[in-house]
Amino acid sequence: MNATINGRSIEFATEQTILEAARADGQFIPTLCELADIGHTPGTCRMCIVEVSRPGQKKAQLLTACDTPVEEGMVIRTRTTEVRQHQRLQMELLLADHNQDCASCVRHGDCELQDTAQFVGLQGTRYTNPEYHAGRCVDRTSIAIERDMTKCVRCQRCLAVCRDVQGTDVLVFSGTGLNAEIGIRDSIAMGDSDCVSCGQCTLVCPVGALAEKDDTEKVIDYFYDEDIFTVIQIAPATRIALGEEFNMGYGENVEGKLISAFEQLGADVVLDTNFTADLVIMEEGNELLSRIQNGGTLPMFTSCSPGWVNWLEKNHPELRDNLSTVKSPQQCFGAVAKTYLADRMNIDPAKMRVISIMPCTAKKEEAARPEFTMDGRPDVDVVLTTRECARLLKREGVWLPGLAEGKFNNEWMGLYSGAAEIFGTTGGVTEAAVRTVHYAVTGNELPAIDYEAIRGYEHMREAEVDLGEKGTVKVGVAHGLAAAKKMIERVQSGDADYTFIEFMGCPGGCMGGGGQPRIKKNYQSFWHERQQAIYKIDKEAPIRQSHNNPCIQKIYDEFLGEPLGKKSHELLHTHYLDRKVDVKHDMKTIWDEIRG
User: Residue 86: CB partners within 8 Å, gap ≥ 6?
Assistant: First the structure.
């Protein structure tokens, strides 16, 4: 079928929208509300207005491109004077009740609303009044995420992701007119709700209405305090995403440049979370073997994704015994840094500050959990997401592409394996564990070290691992909380006969973490290139199994003793809580509120 856009003939498929056809032809139409790859095209922002003439019609119509199918013989114009006038008017209306304190907004310089206003040629606003948004909610009760409804443009992207992608359904549309905003189900504070801090809503919000809590000021204070010894840990998924914030390629590994960047900022030691990912594999692999041999609770669930752990504690606390007791690599790093590393470097742990660079908003909440403290001190002092890290570097005048390649050179915690690196993608924890468990059981390395059976993009996957004389074990993988929910239902119904299940809270695992750089279109496709970069790092690593890391062997020989031993249990293992939110509906109160 054929139509024209701006005088250019195009071919299109049945049910294809004008917006989809224009993109396929390389023609730009601005939008603020649609997320095409998850089917979210509500037409609420009205910025994709185009002029459409149909055969036989005398007068052209102005229609929204995101939800209008292309028809045979359509003549579509996207840049006429009338279209641009309507777009500018619509932008003025969007800005009318929008908090325009842009200089202090976390999205300053990276705001889709600002970009769209510039595209339509907005020269000023006539209708802005601070009273329009004064009564809307600003909720800072969550440790990880801020909800500032004075900036909301009601695009409903966050609703679609929370409901349709993650299946958590915490966010709701509430209020009417100028008081309409994104609220929390049951009208409770975000910090008290079923929100698991996965941060997927912050990835898709076009403005600063939903954003990670910004801790960059705290980190700057640490760097400029001469009495503080700063230790940076860099997570595997951050090094192949941070470059996107500096106009570098998707999936480009900036590990060396990031080391140099933090050394330039004054960090005392820059190390890698991958070191403790190797440590986690040693503990978790041995825990799995112990459960198999001693009749422990199976299937064993991974516990390194805090968004997933939050979800289980809030939705299925009865399954807490299935969770591995091993802390996440982030928390293990903090515990080891403030004991083992502090002792070896002769540093007072009270003066040490561990700063995590993570792809995850939920890591902020994890670091703040009271059970992750020693002698009243937190294992991890502050967490910056990948986006915050980029803002920190730019604020301090550090331009990443121009830096030299640094190296991790600490003799105690300076090496990591390829197995640790693939922790950053869905299926990676399972594959890393399989490499070490296979060796522990058989005494031989896994013949095919790239365990393709567990790799892929499907949100639920499974495979069988041959352990020689010990038989086979069945493993499962689920990434994204909607998939996690389905996997748990299978476990509870008895349909999932797994020994080990890896759960990741975010689609794609840490590749698509809530703290990663945003991709304005195709929300769920961007992590594929990042994933391939992770596998490339693993493939080129001189050490590819956690148990072969000489720094891991050293820490057990000199400090921990043995996996699952007394010292490692004290530092590297934890327990979980029943955090189920019980909202009791008082019907009289509800009806009183409705009448009011």
Answer: 49, 62
